[in-house]
Amino acid sequence: MQHTLDITKERCPMTMVKVKLKLSQIDDGEVLDVLLSEGEPLESVPRTAEEQGHRVEDIRKDGELYHVVIRK
Amino acid sequence: MIDFTESQLERYSRHILLDNVGVEGQQKLLNSKVMIIGAGGLGAPAAMYCAAAGIGKIGIVDADVVEVSNLQRQIIHFTADIGSPKVFSAKEKMQAINPDVEVESIKTFVNASNIEEIIDGYDFVIDGTDSFATKFLINDACVMKGIPFSHGGILRFNGQTMTVLPKESACYRCVFHKPPPKNMIPTCSEAGVLGAVAGMLGTIQAAEALKFITGAGDILADALLTFDALPMNFRKVNVQRNPKCAVCSEHPSITELRDEEQRECDLK
User: Is residue B246 part of a domain?
Assistant: First the structure.
C-alpha cells in the first residue's frame, strides 16, 4: 500500500517530525510518498530517512515541488 | 496506531526528533505515571521536567507549606506561594507548563503506613526527600512492590544519585545498609546547600525517569553517580547487589515496612 504525506506547508523541524510520525504509522515494507519543497526539506528528509534505516527509492521533481519516495 | 494532535506534535517535536525517543518514546511518556516524593529542592526541577516532557500522570507528595527560605532552590514555588501547601503550588506550575498532564497532589508526610498506597500504580518513583529515614522507607517500599525508583541526595555542594531496579540492580540498602546515627551527618540547616546543586541533581533524576520510561540509553542501575560542584567533578562508581541485603536478597530480614529512627532535617 502506498501512503502519501504533504509537508509543503511545514517548516524545519516540523517537516521531519511529520515524516517520523507517518513512518511510525505504516507497516515495514510499505512505501511513503512525501511531497515537499526544495531547500531544507529536500536536503534533510532523504538524509534523515536513510540514517534511520529506511530506503529512499526515488526523488523526482513535480513542478516547483518534489516527491521523495521512502520504503520503511 | 500512534497519533498526536498538531499541538502535541509541536510541543514534543524535540523529543520526537531524537532517535532514542521518537514517536514511540513520546507515546510511552504520555502513557506513564511518575510519583515524586517531596516537592522541595529535588522534587521541584524533577516535577517541572516530568510535566514538560508530557508524563501522563504525575503524583507529588509533601506535607509542608512553602517558606521564604525554600525559594533559593525550590524553583517550582514562587514568592507569592509562601504559606501555600507545596503540593498545590507544584500542581499549579506543572499544569501551567503542560495542561496535558494529570497531577495527583497528596499533602501528607510519607510513612510506613501510607507509602504503599501512595506509590501504588506508578511506573517510577523519584525520591526527593531530605531524611535518611524516608530514603530507606522509599527504597524498601519500592523493592517490595517492584517499582523502579531514583534515589537522590544533596548537601552543601555535593550530590549523589542512583537508580534502582528492584531485585535486578543494587538497592539503596545494598549500598548504605542503614541510616547513619543521629548527628553524624549535619542537617541541611546546619550545613546549607547551593541552590543550583539541587537543580543539577533533581534534573538528573528527571532524566533517569524519562530514560527508564522510553528505554533510551543506560540508567544509573548498579551505579552511584556523585558530584562535587566546587571543583565540578563527577564520578560514577559501580555498585552491586548485596546477596545478604536486608530487603532485596532472597532471604530478607525486613519483610514489613517500618519507620526508621532518624532525626529529620529541620529545613527543607
Answer: no
